[in-house]
Amino acid sequence: MDTESLVETLKTAGLSPYQADAYVALLDLGTAPATDVADASDVPAPRIYDVLRSLEDRGYIETFEQASLRARAHSPSTVLEDLTERADRLERAAQEVEKRWEQPELEAGDASIVTRFQTVISRAKSFIASASHQVLLSTTIENFEQLRPALQDAMDRGVSVRVSVHTSDEAVSLDADRFAGLCTEVHHRPLPAPFVALADRRRACFAHHPDSYDRYGVLVNDRTHTYVFYWYFLTCLWEPWERVYQARDDGYPIEYFDVRHLVRDLRDVDWEDDPVRLRVEGYDTNTGEECHLEGTITDVRVPFDAEAATGFELAGQVTVDLDVDGEHVSVGGWGAIIEDVEGTRLTVVK
């Protein structure tokens, strides 16, 4: 670094122009009379004494009398400490600027449009980190790896994690071991797809596939808008595609993230003659408070012939009735209003 650049940098670090100029001159001179420092710098001779004393007050130099006022630079430890502290503050400021630019704060009910995919990934990480019961994710393998630590932490907290991995080649084979400890269940969609991340039925991230003409992302902190992304995930990115990994073995307990999946599977068991116990995690629709309960299934109510229904013909109102210690409790799916409980995690524990 040349002298001019060093002087400019010291000015940026908080020294006045005269202080920076005099200090750099003194570094080159070693020990010198005040008048020599003035001659070697751009500091006017009448000002040099005040400038040197101000540098001494900062701990950068020391002055002493020897026929005339002389000065010498201290060990640079104080200067280095000041520069390091200033550099740290600048780095933190740069990080905060980037954070505020990339990650606009989302208040409840907000939706934001962003232009950088990395912003979507960063927000997905934070949504997954704050999830308490459910994460649904549509992603490439590459982006899955970026989210690996967040997904592992979520699983360790007992969060249900369902992932739809999309690839551009149908021949791609996914190693099930890759997902152990990171996911509850994985489906494989051998077609390009958007990136989608849903957390706790309230927060959503969406970004077009990188090859798409439209390149933008959507961040949502709102149950109603997230519900739209949920149905897109369910019908286009999850339901039609092959399951390639499941954390549980065959048998009980069996966990469901949608009451419709539960009702569809109940057609295959004789639940009326062979009682089925269901553990429910969800929200009380009257109070909005979280609730946990367990009971025996007593009825399944759908507005059509449930025996004949396949796939998502179950898209209408679906209710499962339980006997919970002699009390009737009705359980619905996402957005349940007329039922007693909106079920977020349904586990057959028979």
From TrEMBL:
Cited CDD domains: PLDc_like_TrmB_middle
The Transcription regulator TrmB C-terminal domain extends over: 112-348
Gene3D superfamilies from the entry?
Answer: Winged helix-like DNA-binding domain superfamily/Winged helix DNA-binding domain (1.10.10.10)
What Pfam family is a match, any one? TrmB
Transcription regulator TrmB N-terminal domain boundaries: 10-68
* Cited InterPro entries: TrmB-like, Tscrpt_reg_TrmB_C, Tscrpt_reg_TrmB_N, WH-like_DNA-bd_sf, WH_DNA-bd_sf
- Transmembrane region positions? none
Task: Return the PANTHER family for the record.
Answer: HTH-TYPE TRANSCRIPTIONAL REGULATOR TRMBL2
Entry's family note:
Belongs to the transcriptional regulator TrmB family.
Q: What is this protein called?
A: Sugar-specific transcriptional regulator TrmB
Taxonomic source organism: Halobellus limi
